[in-house]
Design goal:
Number of domains: 2
Number of helices: 12
Bound molecules: NADPH dihydro-nicotinamide-adenine-dinucleotide phosphate, zinc ion
Oligomer: single chain
Radius of gyration: 20 Å
Shape: globular
CATH class of the largest domain: Alpha Beta
Strand content: 25-35%
Largest sheet: 7 strands, mixed
Length: about 350
């Protein structure tokens, strides 16, 4: 039976989110039904609600940092039981048979993965809807287990902000002896700082916000560079092995490339638009530098980063809100005024 669920949705790019009640699809044999406890607020939710990327569909219930409790399982479900505390991140399906899916890289599925919200369901073409809601129904293949004892509020953002920063750090082999710059201290950036540090790298935060300096140092950054200060940027020229760039809007990459040493890699995770202003090719050629990108992480790696965070006692710094504060939260996020992730308490929001 389909389940009626309360939610908050965006109905157009320029209207605030508002209350919406809709029906979740009837669970299938491989589905897990989840009562949502917490959902993080990612900048991607804001981009999608406002149609910044030009492929949004409406109405859309954003939210892809979902933690909840299993309320029922389909007859084919083998990994989860009623009562388990589980997570759902940015994907809810993929083709499951291409080489990328086979390699545990479902985010690079050759047929395109199914996003947690705003994607057509692969079976019935209905649009998926995300975690700013009370319930969700997801195939067990795209569900992860929350580690025993982990703080669930602080762990919800690991499902996007955590895995998105962990995956490229792991892929590029970041570890002891490496100097890593993390650019932008928001949801992704502050997790990038903590994770790079836990992986053994020397970490420098690049921020526009002097006010974030002390907290960055407390969170594990070894150094802080104010990115708007040209003298500070010039002073670190040629120093870094990796840059993890979480800035959500177009920006000049050249000063950051200049901070990389030879063979340094600039990893874009925040930007989906064309790079503008253009990269000066000399900034690449003269030092054999690389510009790379990375998208979230696969399901197995998402489970891995949850275990990694539990082991290293890493949590997101969160500010808890109720769903009726979401529009104010979006406005504050846009101004960079969040320390460092809003997380919605769904039970308190929809008692
Ligand atoms: P936040 O808004 O939490 O943080 C972004 C940070 O970037 C801000 O705190 C600020 O840091 C800095 N920043 C913001 N605006 C500007 C600007 N105009 N110029 C320079 N710096 C700026 O966002 P999230 O961390 O949630 O997301 C970051 C980006 O990553 C978004 O675009 C999001 O869509 C994308 N994303 C990508 C994923 C992927 O798979 N690749 C997955 C999830 C998100 P400071 O004050 O320190 O300068
Ligand atoms: Zn996200």
């Amino acid at each position: 039976m389909p389940v009626t669920t309360q939610a908050y949705a965006a109905f157009s790019p320029d209207q605030p989110l508002s209350s919406w009640t809709f029906e979740r699809r009837a669970p299938r044999a491989d589905d897990v039904s989840i009562d949502i406890l917490y959902c993080g607020v990612c900048h991607s939710d804001l981009h999608f609600a406002r149609d910044d990327w030009g492929f949004s569909s409406y109405p859309v219930v954003p939210g892809h940092e979902i933690v909840g409790r299993v309320t029922s399982v389909g007859s084919d479900v083998s990994h989860y039981q009623v009562g388990d505390v589980v997570g759902v991140g940015c994907m809810v399906d993929s083709c499951r048979h291409c080489s990328a899916c086979h390699d545990g890289l479902e985010q690079y599925c050759q047929e395109g993965f199914t996003m947690t919200y705003g994607s057509p369901d692969r079976h019935d073409q209905s649009l998926t809807q995300g975690g700013y809601s009370r319930h969700v129904v997801v195939s067990e293949r795209f569900v992860v287990r929350m580690p025993e004892g982990i703080d669930l509020q602080g762990a919800a953002p690991i499902l996007c902000a955590g895995i998105t920063t962990y995956s490229p750090l792991r892929h590029h082999g970041v570890g002891p002896g490496h100097k890593v710059g993390v650019i932008g201290m928001g949801g992704l950036g502050h997790m990038g700082v903590k994770l790079a540090r836990a992986l053994g790298a020397e970490v420098t935060l690049f921020t526009r916000s002097e006010g974030k300096r002390e907290e960055a140092l407390a969170q594990g950054a070894d150094h802080v560079v104010i990115s708007t200060d040209e003298a500070q940027m010039e002073a670190v020229a040629g120093r870094f092995d990796f840059m993890l760039d979480t800035i959500p809007v177009q920006h000049d990459l050249n000063p950051y490339l200049n901070a990389l040493g030879h063979d340094g890699t600039h990893i874009l995770v925040g930007l989906l638009e064309p790079i503008d202003p253009p990269i000066n090719a000399a900034n690449l050629l003269m030092k054999r530098r690389v510009v790379a990108g990375s998208l979230i992480g696969g399901m197995a790696e998402t489970q891995e980063v949850l275990e990694f965070c539990a082991k290293h006692d890493i949590a997101c710094d969160v500010e808890m809100i109720k769903i009726d504060q979401i529009n104010e939260a979006f406005e504050r996020m846009e101004k960079g005024d969040v320390k460092y992730r809003f997380v919605i308490d769904m039970q308190a929001s929809f008692p």
